[in-house]
Amino acid sequence: MTQTPLTKLMRLMILALGLGLLLGVISSAFLTSLNWVTQVHAQQPLLLWGLPFLGILTAFVYGRYGKNAHKGNNLIIDSIHQETQVPFRMAILTFIFTISTHLFGGSAGREGTGVQIGGTLANTLSSQFKLDRNDQRLLIMAGVSAGFASVFGTPLAGAIFGMEVAFIGKFSKEALLPCFISAYVSAWVTHLLGITHTIYTIVSIPPWSITHFVVTILASILFGLTGRSFAILIHGYKKIFTKINLDPLLKAFLGGSLVVILMITLQATRFSGLSTWLIQAGFDGEVGLLDPLYKFGFTILTLGSGFQGGEVTPLFGIGASLGGLIGQLAKLEPSLLAAMGLVAVFGCAANAPLTTVFLGIELFGIQAWPFYLMAAVISYLVSGHHGIYSAQVIHRRKHPFGSQVEGKTLHDLHH
Q: Burial letters for 24-62: b for 16+ Cβ neighbours within 10 Å, e otherwise?
């Protein structure tokens, strides 16, 4: 029976609502588990020595049973662009192995789990309810929004992220309703279930001056270079193992061993897990000179070796600590620069400038919106056609010069 446009829209909205409810419950369980294993690791730091063996187990399970689940967020983005099989087991595996990565001290984030679970459930619901291709795309975007919003407690930024993440230079406004419904419902459910998020505050916004203006521009350029370098190096690290045709189990063991050895040798075990203390240090202006670099390196080694987890929370820490450090050195309010760094380093690495601005407004208030906007635009342009999500399609190139790249994915461009 042919459905009317109104019937299709209502069905899509109901599925987006259900998706938000599901993600809210699952993300609450995930964040509760993550908090518990973080505390366990802090009490039992010797668990770090088990990281290489977890690497072997992760590589074995994903290689034997994961199908194409190892592609992570890129598989979800692929499923937005084209009909791609997303196995339901992906949601289960990413939940279990992200928690395990944090239990054993890997330097990783959490948004990857939310986005992968959201995208997986959206794909499953699309198949069960036999949605047409366009509605399937919209529901997957809604799943991405719900995953991001529920994990970070930022429904506005989560909704924008789902509409923005699949493309560079395109905002999928046709997904507005399902993305906003799923994002706000999922964030509401996690709040209802008692999940709380740390609040970081900008102490003051100093009046404009030439010095302040110049430092803001230079800091934004540095944020862009940091996001660009992170994306290049994490993909480059993975390519090294591919080129030498190293067995995935051995790769994971060696990568995990390298993380352990360096953390112990450099007395840097505090950079294991989420390291959210690093964000607070940036806002307080108490960042060590090498702190951003340590978190940067350990995250690349952890995720590049095949461990599960996201990039976003580590990028928050890298950006906030870098911004806070700049504030310390330039004798400017560190909390403002930390806020700019937190959103901009993530935003340019994810190629999500609108999410960058709205994330800043949602987390730190609207008063400093010109700073978020400046940091977002400059870092986005500086980062070029690089990013942590290689499945992103370039809809509109960032610069008016250079070769034609429209229609290519980042993977096509750099492989």
A: bbbbbebbebbeebbeebeeeeebbebbbebbbebbebb
pLDDT of residue 191: 96
Contacts of 19 (CB under 8 A, 6+ apart): 118, 121, 122, 125, 139, 142, 143, 146, 182, 186
Contact of 112 with 155, CB cutoff 8 Å: no
| Helix H or strand E segment including 304 | helix 291-304
Q: How far is CA 331 from CA 206, 212, 379, in A?
A: 11, 10, 22
Question: Taking 70 as the threshold, does the pLDDT of residue 202 lie above it?
Answer: yes
Three-class SS of 154-182? CHHHHHHHHHHCCEECCCCHHHHHHHHHH
**pLDDT per residue over 294-339, tens digit each?**
999 999 999 999 999 989 999 999 999 999 999 999 999 999 999 9
Alpha carbon 246 to its chain centroid, in Å, reads 27
CA-nearest of 84, 160, 69, 167 to 389 is 167
Which residue is associated with the tokens 């964040």? 31
Single-letter residue type at 254: L
Secondary structure (3-state) at 140? helix
Amino acid 406: pLDDT: 87
Rounded CA-CA distance 384/246 in Å is 30
What is the rounded CA–CA span in Å between residue 250 and residue 218? 41
Cα(101)–Cα(37) distance, integer angstroms = 9
Q: Which two tokens stand for residue 240?
A: 């090294």
Instruction: Note the pLDDT tens digit of each residue in 19-30.
Output: 999 999 999 999
Query: Which residues, in sequence order, are CB contacts of 244 under 8 Å at separation 6+?
Result: none
Closest CA to 297 of 332, 262, 267: 262
Q: Which residue has the tokens 């499945």?
A: 391
Q: Which two tokens stand for residue 74?
A: 């890129």
